Amino acid sequence: MAEDIDIDTDDLERRMKGAMDSLRGEFASLRTGRAAASMLDPVQVDAYGQMTPINQLGTVNVPESRMVTINIWDKAMVGKVEKAIRESGLGINPQLNGTIIMLPIPELNEERRRELTKVAAQYAESARVSIRNVRRDGMDQVKKGKSNGMPEDDQKLYETEIQSLTDRMIAAVDEALTAKQAEIMQV
């Protein structure tokens, strides 16, 4: 009976890496004073009866370091895309030129930089919580194994492996946060 009990640490690691990937995506959407197409990823537009990402409504380009352009394919969507960008909280004022929306990226002031570092810290804390939830799931599996006759040595081994994996992932989150905060505060 005890041989049938196995904790899938690869699955736990995959789920923790998923939290890291999500964090990287959230960090990519934070504006750092330089233009990036990914900064528009969180913006959704009410198009054709459903919420749609901007990159599915037009071509997003970064022609220079302080400018993003969006060439909207359907002329009827231009106003909706412009409105979604204005209401997104990105702090960008879109300019229209036919079906092209230009987004000049203003220089970040000190106060806005501090706000963005706080937002980055919130994203990182959310990722840490997700990683800890995966750890808890793994530890619950070990406890179930214990009640089903898993040898004590195996329990300790799995607990140590799960904790080590958690510590590595939390350290990776902290490292990514430090790098992102340094990037945001860079003038």
From TrEMBL:
Subcellular locations according to the entry: Cytoplasm
Gene3D superfamilies found in the cross-reference section: 3.30.1360.40, Ribosome-recycling factor
Location (main, coarse): cytoplasm
Positions of the Ribosome recycling factor domain: 24-185
GO molecular function annotations of the record: ribosomal large subunit binding
Domain of life: Bacteria
GO cellular component: cytosol
InterPro entries according to UniProt: Ribosome_recyc_fac, Ribosome_recyc_fac_dom, RRF_sf
Keyword Cytoplasm appears in the UniProt entry: yes
GO BP annotation list: cytoplasmic translational termination
Keyword vocabulary terms for this entry: Cytoplasm, Protein biosynthesis
Role of this protein: Responsible for the release of ribosomes from messenger RNA at the termination of protein biosynthesis. May increase the efficiency of translation by recycling ribosomes from one round of translation to another.
Family statement: Belongs to the RRF family.
Protein name, entry field: Ribosome-recycling factor
